[in-house]
Structure formats: C-alpha cells, structure tokens
Amino acid sequence: MSEEKKASGYVIVHGHFYQPPREDPWIEEVEKQKEAKPYHDWNELISYQCYLPNACARVVDDKGKIVDLVNNYSYISFNFGPTLLSWMEKKFPRVVDFLYRADKESAKKNNGHGNAICQVYNHMIMPLASEKDKYTQAKWGIKYFEKKFGRFPEAIWLPETAVNDATVKVLIDVGMKFIILAPHQAQRIRPLEKKNEDVWQDVSDGTIDTSIPYRLFLKDEKGQRIEDTFIDVFFYQGELSRAIAFERILKNSSACADKIEKIIKDKKTPPFLVNIATDGETYGHHEPFSDMCLAHLLKYELPERGIQVVNYAHYLEINPPAYEVELKAGENGEGTSWSCAHGVGRWKKNCGCSSGAHPEWNQNWRAPLRESLDWLRDRLASLFENEGKELFQDTWQARDNYIDVIVERSPESMNNFLQAHLKVEATQENKVKALKLLEMQRFSMLMYTSCGWFFDELSGVETVQNLKYAARAMQLAEELAGEDLEGEFSNRLSEAKSNVKEFGDGKGVYEKLIKPSVADWQKFFAHFLICEELVEEKSAISPYEHDFETFQVRQEEISGILLKVGRGKLTSRKTQELKEGTFFLTHFGGHKIYCFIAESVSDEDYTNLQEKLLFKDIDLSLEGLKSLASPFFGSPFTLKDLFAEDREKILSFIMSDKIKEIREVNESLFDRDIELVREFVRMGWQMSFDFTFLTSNVLNYRINQQIDEFEQDEDFEHFEKVKNSKKIAHELDLDLDISFAAKVVERFVLSKMEVLSQEFNLDVLKMLHGLNQYMSSLNIHYRRYDAQNELWEIMQQKILPQLDSMSQDKENLDFLQHFFVLAEDFNFKVPKRG
C-alpha cells in the first residue's frame, strides 16, 4: 500500500485484441487472402504488425540503438479473443507464450491480479443474442481463459462493449467482477450509501468521472437494487482513448505522457486515475511503431513522472466503488455499445453507422440478415433439443461444457466429455451424433460474429464468412435429421438487398459465394486421392482435421494412362464420423486427372467393378471412361475441385519442369549475349523490355541459387558470385527482386541463433558476423526482427547475468567480444568493453 500512496497518479491502458474467426468451416484452416499480400492472410499480417511487436517492443536511444525489448502485455490490461488465440497457438506460439508470461509477471506487480481478462467466445453482440447463447458465450470465454491462463478471470470484455440488463445478469451469474464500458453508456450515478434517496446525477452526456469504478446492481421487479447482485464498471477516458486510437498522439511518448499528466493535475481530488481503452491493433497495425511508443510510455516515461501503471483489478482492490451507476437502456432495452451512436443498431438495421467508404450504399440488408439468422438459430436450437434430449443428461449443459473439447481437440478430451455427458451407451453412432449436434451449435454461434454487420456490404468478406458458418450448420442439420433448411434460409436472405449488382440480394450472395465452398465427404475423398497421386511428399498435404486411408487398391497402366480402383476410409477428427467409399481414378498425365467417388459397395460388387474398369480393351478416351464409370459413379472430381492451397502446390509442381526449361533457355541466351549487352549499355543503349526482363530474371535466379547453396554448405565463396551478379545488375540499372534470398538468409540466421541459445559457439558468432558484413556490402536487407529477439533473450538470460565472471576468463572473454560485435550488427547498444 505504501507504494500506491507515493504515486502521483495511476494509469491503466487496456488493449482489446481481436480478429474475427477466418477459418473455412469445412477445412478449419484460414485460406490465403490476396488482400493481405505479402502475408498469407489478415491474421498473419496483423500478427507481424501488432501482436508480435507488442511482445518485444523496441526501446531505442537517440542514435536509434536498441536499449530494451519490452513485453507490453506485462504493462497493459489486455484481452485476446479465444478464436484468435487458438489460431495464434498454431501459428505464433511464442507470442502466446509472451502473453502467458506477461499475465504472471503482472500479477506479481499488481498484488496478485494479472493483466489478462477474458472475452466472450466469438465476438457475438450479447444484447442481441438469445439467452442460451449469452450464457454459452460467456462460459466458453471463461473456460477457455481458465485453461490457457491457469486462473479464473476477474473480468470479461464485451464485444463492442455492447451491454444491456440481460447481459449484465449473465455476467453476474458466471462470476465476473467488473466490465469496461464507454463513458456515453452511463445514464446516471449516485453515492452508494444513499440507496434510498433520489439524488441521482445525470451523466448521459458522457460526463461521468472515469477515474473511479462504479457499482452496477441488478434491479428487482420494483426497480430496487438487489444488494448482493452486482458487477463493478470502469468507464474509460473517452477523449484520450479516441486520441490514441484515431489522432496519432502516441507517435511521441513524451507528448502522450504530458496529456496524461495534465489530466491528473487538473483533477483536484484523489484518486488520480487515467483509464484508457482501445482496440489493441492500434499499437502497431493501425498506427505503425506505436508499440514502441507504448513501451517507452509505460515502462519509462510515466514511472519517471511518478505515475504508476496498474491494471483494473488491482486498482479496484485499492479503490472500491463509492458510487452506484445505471446504464442507458437503449432502444427496446437492447442496450448500447462503444461503436454505434444508435445503441446496437449497427448489428440489426440501417442505423446510419458505416465505414463511409461507399456513401452511396445503404445497409438495409442488416435487418433481413439478422432475421434470417435468427430464424435459422431457432430451428437449429429446436433440432438440438429434440435430438439431444435422447443422448445427453442435460442438453444445454453439454453445450456449455463442449468448450472442454474445443480447447484441446484431442481424443482424450472428446472421450472424457462424452463419458461425462452422455446418458446412453457410447456407441460409435451415438458419439458421432452427439458430436455433430455440438459442432452444429458451435457454427450456429460463429455465424453471429459481430463483423458480419459492422461494415457496408452484404457480400463483404466478413458477412460471407458468417454465412459460410450458417451453411456448415445447415449441412450438419441435414446429415443429422434429414432436415433441409437451406432452401428456406436462402429465400429469406433474398429480402437482404446487396449494393453490388452482380449479387442482387442475399440469395445471390449465398448461391455465388457460399454454395461453391460447401464440401461433403466425397470432396475430401477426392482431394486426398488426387493429392496422394500427384504429390511425392505426403506430409505436404494438409489433413484438414481428417484421417484418410486407402485399401484393396488395384491399378493398371494401359497405353500410358493410369487406372486405379480402390476403397477408402475417411474419419473426421471433429466428429469421429467414419465414411467408407469406393473410387476410380484415371490419370492421363500432367494435370489431366479424374477421380470418381461413390458410396461403399459390397465385396462382390467391388470385384465386378474392378474387372469392368480395369479391362485392357476398354475405351481409354475420357468420354469412354466416364461412360464406363457412369453406372457406379457420378461426375468426376478434377484439380479445380481441390482445396485452394493444396491445388496451388500441385499446379506449381506440375509446372516445375516447364519453369526449369524456360530458365535453361533464358540462361543460355543470357550467357551468349550478356557481354554484348554490357558493351552496348556502356555506349548509351537503352535496353528493351525483352532484354530487361531476360537479364533481370536470370540474375535474380542466380543470386537466389547462390544464397540457397550457401545455406547448405556455409561457403562464403557463394557471395563472390552474388557480388558479380549484383555488379552486372548495377551496370545495367536493373531492379532485382531478392525477397527469396532475403528469406533464406533470415531462416539461416534464425537456425544459428538456435545453436547460440544452446551453447556458446564462437564459430557461429564469427559466421553470423561475416554474413552480416556480406549482406551490408551487397545491399541485401533481410528481416532481422526475430533474430534480434533471440539474441536479446540470449544476452539477457545467459550473457549479462555472468558478464563479470566471463570477463575474467580468456576463452570466455574472446567469446564475449565477438558476441557484442554481433549484437552491434543487430543494432543493439552494448555495454562498454575495456
């Protein structure tokens, strides 16, 4: 407590880190998104621009040298959406480790209160959700947090801070201590001790004091507060939060600290809290380098001014509420939010809120979209209840606890869950049905992710993603109960009018953008069969949450055409459903491959099928084979039917020989004419496009080839050849694309950093220093960010703690000297050496 009393003021900065779930609902992978180039997808782009930089934010001196790497998450209050965090665990596990570490470190500084809070599961607008969805969303968010952070959360982030009385009741019921809202969401306040007096102060204009927490009580039927049923509320400082999010004031940490200090000094009486909340993506994605300013602000600038950085739970402990608050009810009691001036209208109607990118467009589509999804949700809930009551001890409790399976996705977690919740024998049929019902419910909630209404157009990527989740839920419903909901759903969508003529309405969007994405078991069958036929490296094929095997396969090659007949088993890892099928695959060479799929047949029929399809005198034309297969199979699957990323790999593989042939021709022409070209250029000739393209292509390839070979043999002689290629490019005034070479160097350096993290290897230090010198002399810039992070960890954990003792030993001293030379290569400010 003495430390708190010494502080001249307090600061809390909250970052709401969130991206909508982007996984394709059939393959459970985020597919490549062209708009995110050069990154694979938006998640990856934002991770590199924001989530990673905030885990190791650079603090630099006046010469631009790195003096500190700061884990911003150990200073800010934060939440990560569970769907985003699940993706990050697969793609950016080290960042996730930084989050867990930050929560533990912050708890030590904040009297046992960690910085992390949870979020409802998939960013559903809670006031507009059904009561059961409200509870499941909150419970899933809490359980996910518990399993990942190892403790019960003290608070929950509400998507878009959307709240109403029904939502508050849910949060109280599930044990949340506090929430964070916008100042304009408060209606009135009064001192806690004057509960029986009509002394309310109206703060509906946003003038609520944001430096203190408030107590929000549930009310009884007479409108009286229920004393023991409450949740505490923080209202963030609106003006400063907006300035950080939209006005770029964090481009200078000192200037931002001045504003914070002024707010504190202008307040005449304690407590002196400045409470800021923004989207976490502000720090690095929306505002480049603001992660660095945030690090300097929180670790250095504010503490030097006597302002203590804390989190909400800690501050709540030392400054409990003295005032009661009531919230604005919003239209029809549906509540309010931080990003819609019309309550929660942005997620249900054309309220006037939009991005502004297309002022000529309207958002009248929002209402029929929500109405259509509400209809579908209710039909799916009814199916879930009717089918589930025959399987589960408690249908809705089973759904609430299904998060235990979602978090781990292991056979063990699945079996433990089924054992705890099934009231019938755990036969394969019952297990599959139970899991499919629960997956149907998962998708029925994912289809309400808030981004589907936030932007301007029905055919936008966010809305399409929600509709894909709806399609997957309907597919499961039909498999479970034979109930075709899709026709009625798409008809209802026709009331939602698109701003894009190509689509017309929601039904057009569904037909053109959703239905082509739907994948059944036959598509998975064909995908794996075609990939296995064309891809040598089986590990390069993604399993897409399925296990696949073939058996009883027989094949013949007739006149250079491969004919293959066999059986296969496809098992879903999500639902444990097993599908057996029969296939007929024909490969004419190259990309001409056709795969016919049918339900499993009897042994006798299968034998007859083999004999008929593999008969040597059959018509080997494609039409002949189709005719032969038609009594058993439908239309064949081809390369165009594969899932996009594997298809791209296969097409690249098929084209590799042609690319090699083109490259050899180009190199031959280059070697034949390059000296003549150089001589002509020296005499003032302007190269034509053809020669520019040819020479650039060959020089790029040769530089990449030499760097690639260096990675294998670590011979610096390769760089002499690179130097020669760069010299020619300079003479001819060519711009080379060395991005591939830069990535190879980055990968090589990271592999050597891994060696250094395990042992003090002087040869590795010398190798990396020599490599950096070559890169500088050749003007090849590779991404050093991750290597800097690794080197910093080595320096902080292994070098600096034993610096004095190492300096006394000649061998270690030699290592130290080379280590600090390398650290300077990577732009670190290093200790002065004698």
Number of strands: 18
Q: Determine the mean pLDDT.
A: 95
Distance between the termini: 44 Å
What is the 3D shape? globular
User: Main sheet, how many strands, which sense, barrel?
Assistant: 4 strands, parallel
| Low-confidence regions | 1-5
State the helicity in percent bands: 40-55%
From the helix content, strand content and strand pairing, which structural class follows? alpha/beta
Proportion in β-strands: 5-15%
Helix tally? 30
Radius of gyration: 31 Å
Task: Please supply descriptive tags for the structure shown above.
globular, 4-stranded antiparallel sheet, 834 residues, alpha/beta
Please provide a written account of the structure.
This protein is α/β, with parallel strands linked by helices and about 850 residues long. Helices cover about 50% and strands about 15% of the residues. The protein contains 30 helices and 18 strands. Strands 1, 4, 12 and 13 form a four-stranded parallel β-sheet that branches. A hairpin with a 5-residue loop joins strand 2 and strand 3 (about 65-70). The longest helix is centred in the C-terminal third of the chain and has 39 residues, at about 645-680. The protein is globular and about 95 Å long.
